[in-house]
């Protein structure tokens, strides 16, 4: 039986230790990339797009992430076409983060796949794990929202500013508050 590396364990969502040399090298690589990316305020959107394609697992056309931006590894992030993240967003991508076409994410949003064991002995052993996050197409996430490990947000959903999303949000759902709760959507007047 072949022993799995810490990176393989991390990518599988199993308990792993983040101070592993291979993961440290991956983190160093993305830290150097973030140093470059976060100095791109004067670059064109096309130039920033090329940098995103260099670091992320996949990037659709016309994506825009306004710096500063922070992530753990980059290679677990997959963006659809036309995704927009405003200033100061953070994605802890120890496992897959998928963001669908046309999704708009406000400033200061945190998307957090990283999690920690509830067992104190495992935490003392510096173990952690991740749960994937999927955000559908045409989602609007307000400023300062937190999307917690394992959450799926359906297409066309809205997440209110400052909300802490601990559970799945269905397609077309509106979730607000801490913890976020579903509420009926407001219908815009017909003009």
From TrEMBL:
Q: Which domain of life is it from?
A: Bacteria
UniProt-listed Enzyme Commission number(s)? 2.3.1.-
- Which PROSITE patterns does the record associate with it? HEXAPEP_TRANSFERASES
Q: Which SMART domains match?
A: Mac (SM01266)
A Pfam family that this protein carries is Mac
Name the Gene3D superfamilies for this protein: Hexapeptide repeat proteins
Which keywords appear in this protein's UniProt record, sorted alphabetically? Acyltransferase, Repeat, Transferase
One annotated GO molecular function is:
acyltransferase activity
Domain (Maltose/galactoside acetyltransferase) ranges: 7-61
Which SUPFAM superfamilies does the record cross-reference, listed alphabetically?
Trimeric LpxA-like enzymes (SSF51161)
Q: Which InterPro entries match?
A: Hexapep (IPR001451), Hexapep_transf_CS (IPR018357), Hexapeptide_acetyltransf (IPR051159), Mac_dom (IPR024688), Trimer_LpxA-like_sf (IPR011004)
Name the enzyme group at the top EC level: transferase
Q: Which family is this sequence assigned to?
A: Belongs to the transferase hexapeptide repeat family.
Recorded protein name is Sugar O-acetyltransferase
């Amino acid at each position: 039986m072949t022993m799995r590396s810490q990176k393989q364990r991390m990518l599988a969502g199993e308990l792993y230790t983040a101070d592993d040399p291979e993961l440290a090298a991956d983190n160093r690589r993305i830290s150097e990339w973030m140093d470059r990316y976060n100095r791109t305020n004067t670059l064109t959107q096309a130039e920033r797009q090329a940098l995103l394609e260099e670091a992320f697992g996949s990037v659709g056309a016309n994506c825009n992430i306004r710096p500063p931006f922070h992530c753990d590894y980059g290679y677990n992030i997959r963006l659809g076409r036309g995704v927009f993240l405003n200033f100061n967003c953070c994605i802890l991508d120890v496992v897959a983060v998928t963001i669908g076409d046309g999704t708009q994410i406000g400033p200061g949003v945190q998307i957090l796949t990283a999690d920690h064991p509830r067992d104190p002995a495992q935490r003392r052993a510096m173990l952690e794990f991740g749960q994937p996050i999927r955000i559908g197409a045409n989602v609007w996430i307000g400023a300062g929202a937190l999307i917690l490990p394992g959450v799926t947000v359906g297409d066309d959903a809205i997440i209110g500013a400052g909300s802490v999303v601990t559970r799945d949000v269905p397609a077309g759902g509106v979730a607000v508050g801490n913890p976020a709760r579903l509420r009926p959507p407001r219908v815009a007047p017909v003009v």
